[in-house]
Design a protein that fits this description.
Elements (H helix, E strand, L loop, with lengths): L7 H26 L9 E6 L3 E4 L5 H20 L14 H23 L4 H4 L3 H14 L1 H4 L23 H10 L1 E5 L3 H4 L2 H14 L6 H7 L4 H7 L26 H10 L1 E5 L8 H12 L18 E5 L2 E5 L12 H12 L4 E6 L6 H21 L7 E4 L9 H4 L1 E6 L1
Parallel strand pairs: 7-8
Antiparallel strand pairs: 1-2, 3-4, 5-6, 6-9, 7-9
Helix pairs in contact: 1-2, 5-13, 7-13, 9-10, 9-12
This protein binds heme C (2 copies).
Length: about 425
């Protein structure tokens, strides 16, 4: 396609090209016809150094032949391929088309490799040497300029190998950081905090959260002012991954050293960090490999257990521990628990003991809760007995832990094999 508004230049270039070739042929023809002035001895009369004379021989035939073939080749080429202005050539070849074909061929070649990764969980992919070799190359070519070739980051660019995650270190969170990009915005907060002394005090309070060197008098004075920060960094300063607000209690600072001047600077000037989005550049398979690569760098966090539906019984297996969740006030085992129960039975048959312990949520009467926990543990025990597990292979633990936190998570019985 021409980038010009009229096709003048296209016609001009095509014209110059064709006229150029025709002119070459004409030159050959004319010089073949024209007789140079020749002396009787077939020399041109030019003499150098006394007896070096220029002969007037015709062009060698083989040379003329090659010259004509070259011109014909030129015409044929210009007919088949693009070369005359915007004329596309009869073969319709284009660089872009060639590139697309090569990319398609390349993708076809790697498809079987990625197909082998398709069903794998991020955690398993991170242990697959072939996937990690690909991840390493993708990372070095696309991410290392910001995050460093060892992924340890640098000033302003987060270290991806530690346990500090602004946006989350679970497989899904990392995948989302990479594919959709992230923008972390910390607004300038100086005015909201107060005087420059107030800012210094808050800065020292922030440093105290991670037991970094700080002035404890200032830290105490700054504590109250931290409310301005709590909306994002949390009351306890542990951050908020939904906003990309870092945990300030770890002593890991991306934007500068853990000293007062840096924190004061952050408070006064704020900071916007941008992680570009990559979903346009990489295929979903490649993004998954990259996420596994980053996850496996050391900081990866296990995928969050799917939270059981608010008030329904369910079963989950985590780290080899089977967790039976119960509905509020109920001791009925979830339907669909068959596989988990079968696994326990198999474990016991292999010589292990099933340790059953109950947990309850924090709501309501404590004595009733304890009774309920017992009922639930007994329900699980009875279920196991019904499946043929001998009673002496089952150990009931006192329902000690009254879990704080998410109630649906707390209403459970755990069975572990020991
Ligand atoms: C232009 C620089 C740049 C490039 C290139 C880049 N990143 Fe980032 N990345 C950042 C910045 C800056 C952040 C922090 C964003 C913020 O302020 O929260 C970030 C954040 C992240 C996070 C989230 C970290 C956390 O704490 O939650 C992950 C994961 C990540 N990058 C992975 C990658 C991968 C994988 C690549 C290569 C495909 C990549 N990045 C390429 C600049 C970059
Ligand atoms: C609107 C939400 C928000 C508020 C309010 C906020 N922050 Fe932040 N803060 C962030 C985000 C997001 C980042 C990460 C910026 C980035 O890396 O892109 C950050 C980064 C920081 C950092 C840098 C950490 C590092 O890794 O170097 C410090 C220190 C900090 N905040 C302290 C404070 C203090 C003190 C206050 C209160 C005066 C405060 N923030 C208020 C969102 C907030």
């Amino acid at each position: 396609m021409s980038d010009f508004t009229s096709n003048f230049w296209s016609v001009f270039v095509a014209g110059v090209t064709i006229v150029g070739i025709l002119a070459c042929l004409a030159l050959l023809w004319i010089s073949g016809k024209t007789k140079a002035m020749t002396a009787a001895d077939n020399t041109t009369g030019h003499v150098w150094d006394g007896d070096l004379r220029e002969m007037n021989n015709p062009l060698p035939r083989w040379w003329v032949g090659l010259f004509i073939i070259t011109c014909l080749f030129g015409f044929a080429y210009l007919f088949l391929y693009p070369g005359l202005g915007t004329y596309a050539g009869s073969l319709k070849w284009s660089q872009a088309g060639q590139f697309d074909r090569e990319v398609a061929r390349g993708n076809e070649q790697v498809a079987p490799i990625y197909a082998a990764f398709a069903g794998k969980r991020t955690e398993d992919l991170a242990k697959d040497p072939q996937a990690m070799a690909i991840g390493d190359r993708l990372f070095l070519n696309n991410c290392a300029q910001c995050h460093g070739s060892d992924a340890r980051g640098s000033r302003g660019f987060p270290n991806l190998t530690d346990a500090q995650w602004n946006w989350g270190g679970a497989p899904d969170a990392i995948l989302e950081s990479i594919s959709k990009g992230r923008t972390g915005i910390m607004a300038p907060m100086g005015a909201a905090v107060g005087t420059s002394d107030d800012v210094r005090n808050v800065a020292n309070y922030v440093l105290s959260l991670s037991s970094s060197p700080h002035d404890s008098v200032r830290a105490n004075l700054g504590r109250a002012k931290f409310v301005a920060c709590a909306a994002c960094h949390g009351q306890d300063g542990k951050g908020n991954q939904a906003l990309g607000a870092p945990n300030l209690t770890t002593g890991i600072f991306t934007h500068g050293p853990g000293v007062e001047s840096h924190i004061v600077n952050m408070i006064n000037n704020g900071k916007t960090g941008v992680m570009p989005a990559w979903d346009g550049k990489f295929s979903p398979d490649q993004l998954k490999v990259l996420a596994a690569y980053v996850w496996g760098k050391g900081g990866g966090v296990a995928a969050a257990a799917p939270a059981p539906a608010a008030d329904a019984a369910s079963v989950a297996v985590e780290n080899g521990v089977v967790k039976f969740y119960f509905a509020t006030g109920k001791a009925d085992i979830a339907g669909g628990a068959g596989q988990a129960l079968a696994d326990i039975v198999a474990g016991v048959q292999a010589g292990k003991k099933a340790v059953v312990s109950g947990f309850v949520d924090s709501s309501g009467n404590a004595a009733q809760n304890e009774e309920l926990a017992k009922q639930r543990a007994l329900a699980v025990r009875d279920q196991l007995k019904a499946l043929g597990v001998a009673e002496d292979r089952i150990e009931l633990q006192k329902p000690g832990n009254i879990d704080a936190g998410a109630d649906a998570q707390a209403r459970r019985v755990e069975v572990s094999l020991v």
